[in-house]
Design brief:
218 residues; alpha/beta; five-stranded parallel sheet; four-stranded antiparallel sheet; 21% strand; elongated
Length: 218
């Protein structure tokens, strides 16, 4: 999963990007509203974490611009403002959830998972195809009766595939889902992750379409 953090406070920005390390969630950090809109034009994100007090334009204006151009990326507002008027305005403009500062990281991570699964049409933390069940909360995959806890990056790859079962995802699409700005990506990184996942389960858990990409059965 790849998310966009829109936050001008350097302490909060650094703390959150460090907190997400090792979770399987790649974080791109934009410090202004305009930078956020540029990033969203170029990169698909699972979630936007949007602060309201940005230096160049109000966070609600960023949200308004995002929805005006028909971008449906889920938005979770993080703000120090706990008044009803701000909440109502944000929800009416298309926000999916609110978290009030200061917040607990585990709660934030749970809210991100909830927003992602609602956006994908899942009522619980389980997403699945005809063959695979993925537990977003427990970071566990089950295939043909075999269940395994997966390391963060392997789990993120499986989630990217399970969010679009039956669709072929290219190497670039998978890399975009797994790695954030500035992260060095080895040319065979995706191949290595798939090798380890197949070794835990079965070669057929992830199917290769030669010259195109990878998929899981619908």
């Amino acid at each position: 999963m790849r998310i966009l953090l829109v936050e001008d406070d350097p302490l909060i920005g650094r703390s959150l990007t460090q907190a997400f390390e090792g979770t399987g969630i790649a974080v791109d950090w934009a410090r202004t509203g305009e930078d956020a809109l540029v990033a969203l034009s170029a990169t698909p994100y699972s979630v936007v974490l949007l602060d309201l007090g940005l230096p160049d334009k109000a966070g609600l204006d960023v949200l308004k611009d995002l929805r005006r151009r028909k971008d449906t990326t889920p938005v979770l507002i993080i703000t120090a403002h706990d008044d009803i008027e701000t909440r109502v305005a944000g929800l009416d403009l298309g926000a999916d959830d609110f978290v009030v500062k200061p917040f607990d990281f585990d709660e934030l991570a749970a809210r991100i998972r909830a927003v992602v699964r609602r956006h994908a049409g899942h009522a619980t933390s389980l997403i699945q195809s005809s063959e695979i069940v993925l537990d977003l909360a427990g970071r566990q995959a089950t295939y043909k009766g075999v269940s395994q806890l997966l390391p963060a990056r392997e789990f993120a790859l499986m989630q990217a595939l399970l969010e679009r079962p039956g669709a072929i995802l290219s190497r670039k699409q998978l890399e975009d889902a797994l790695y954030g700005w500035g992260e060095e990506v080895e040319s065979n990184a995706v191949d290595v992750l798939i090798y380890y996942i197949r070794r835990k389960f079965d070669n057929d858990i992830i199917r290769n379409v030669r010259g195109v990409g990878w998929m899981v059965a619908k």
